[in-house]
Design goal:
9 strands; about 45% helix; four-stranded parallel sheet; five-stranded mixed sheet; alpha/beta; Rossmann fold
Length: about 290
């Protein structure tokens, strides 16, 4: 029997087993949507340099989708239910579980009326948790990975599009930004997320052929608009396009960027090389 992939008792004995309180714990504030939190946990695992169980990082995932009001509705109308109190409560639960830094795999939750308010709530509560900002980390990654890049395409939800969350951060980092026109954003890109028959919220495992095809067509349109790379600015989109390139353009997955940023902040010596094989496709037409 081939046992080459199995850790020997000697290896297990040498493993640096740590007890509670001795290592940083990464918190994942999930539920927006729930699959995005699982995807972030998977990518933290994938991008950790580990050969045995004990070399992986501790991760606490809190997914309470029923607690969190609609982020888009609140950003468009502040009279709607504010999701910030629920996000604060969940973050405090993660902190009670030992989390020292927290990532939120939801682009819409990074809107300043939510993210900044969450950060302020935690400060007022005396929390020591650090929030890692996914959109800012994505801009940082683009600048470091593609130093000659000038124009970035962004595909996102309608709320992120209309509130210019990526546009503002990317332009502040020195990029010009290509985005779908309003009709394409509303009738094509947003429907890839929310359509009840083929959208990614309803059909994520497997992803439907139509959702993937519509998203790839939107990437092609951004290429025609001069984009040199495309950001998948909705945490569901990488479920449909898991490849690192599409239509000849680099495809940037902010969930992957967030995973690597969390590892970098928690344990930089455990961050695996970014030159990894392509991820397995998360879609199938079968």
């Amino acid at each position: 029997m081939n046992t080459s992939a199995v850790s020997s008792p000697e290896e297990e004995e040498r493993a640096p087993v740590q007890t509670a309180g001795e290592e940083p714990i990464i918190g994942i504030l999930s539920g927006m949507g729930p699959y995005a939190g699982l995807d972030l946990a998977r990518k933290i695992h994938r991008h950790t340099d580990a050969r045995i169980d004990q070399e992986h990082l501790s991760v606490a995932l809190a997914s309470y989708p029923g607690w969190i009001p609609d982020r888009s509705a609140y950003l468009f109308d502040s009279a709607k239910r504010d999701p910030t109190p629920a996000l604060t409560k969940i973050t405090r639960r993660l902190e009670a579980a030992g989390a020292t830094l927290v990532g939120i795999p939801c682009n819409t939750a990074h809107g300043p009326p939510i993210f900044d308010a969450l950060r302020e709530n935690l400060r007022e509560a005396g929390s020591s948790v650090r929030l890692v900002h996914m959109i800012e980390e994505t801009a940082r990654h683009l600048r470091e990975a593609y130093p000659r890049l000038e124009r970035v395409g962004v595909l996102s939800s309608l709320a992120v599009h209309q509130l210019t969350l990526y546009k503002d951060v990317l332009e502040a980092a020195g990029f010009s930004v290509a985005r779908p026109d309003d009709q394409t954003q509303r009738d094509v890109v947003n429907e890839v997320i929310f359509d009840e028959s083929y959208g990614l919220k309803a059909q994520s495992a497997p992803v439907t052929e139509r959702a993937r095809a519509d998203l790839l067509r939107a990437v092609s349109d951004l290429k025609d608009d001069g984009a040199g790379a495309v950001v998948l600015g909705c945490t569901e989109f990488p479920l449909a396009i898991s490849e690192r390139r599409a239509h000849g353009l680099p495809v940037v997955d902010p969930t992957r960027v967030l995973a690597r940023a969390l590892i970098r902040e928690a344990a930089p010596d455990r961050l695996a090389s970014s030159a990894r094989p392509e991820e397995e496709p998360a879609w199938t037409t079968g």
